[in-house]
Each structure stands twice: as structure tokens, then as C-alpha cells.
Specification:
By secondary structure, the chain is mainly α. Helices cover about 60% and strands about 0% of the residues. The chain folds into 2 domains: about 50 residues, no CATH class; about 30 residues.
Length: about 80
């Protein structure tokens, strides 16, 4: 085998290992990769990052539901003390 071909193959293997190490170092334990300049590998879980945000209407609806729930709990709590 040609020596230059062997060196080329070893360099390719080193690059593959470096990318794998960078990907593993970039993971923060949640499956989502931290953004770094050295790594270009991103898992599919990064696309799910933006889920769970509430719209203004959703926040208002949730606020109204919680206020109603808290009012019912206060009403039940005062009813027990009087009885």
C-alpha cells in the first residue's frame, strides 16, 4: 500500500473521531447539543427546543382557569373552618 494513502486514511479516521468527540462534548445531558463553533453535528432533538411556549391568549386562559381554581380552594377552605 502507498504510504500517502495510509496517511490519508488515518487523517480521515482522525476527523471522524474528532467530530464524534465534539458531538459528545456538546451534549448537555438532555440530548440537546450546546451551540459551539467547533461542532457542526446537531441531533434531531434540537428542533423540539421551541415547543411549550404559550401565546398571549393561552396565558390569559390559563390565568383565568387558575384564578377560578384558587377561588374554589379558598371557598372550600373557609367552609371547613366554619364547620
Amino acid at each position: 500500500m502507498d504510504l500517502s494513502h495510509i496517511v490519508s486514511e488515518l487523517k480521515n479516521e482522525r476527523n471522524r473521531i474528532d467530530r464524534a468527540i465534539a458531538a459528545l462534548n456538546g451534549l448537555n445531558g438532555t440530548g440537546i447539543q450546546r451551540t459551539t463553533k467547533t461542532s457542526s453535528v446537531k441531533p434531531a432533538a434540537i428542533t423540539a427546543k421551541h415547543r411549550g411556549h404559550l401565546t398571549a391568549q393561552g396565558r390569559k386562559r390559563l390565568s383565568e382557569m387558575m384564578k377560578k381554581r384558587w377561588a374554589e380552594r379558598r371557598k372550600r377552605a373557609t367552609g371547613r373552618k366554619a364547620a
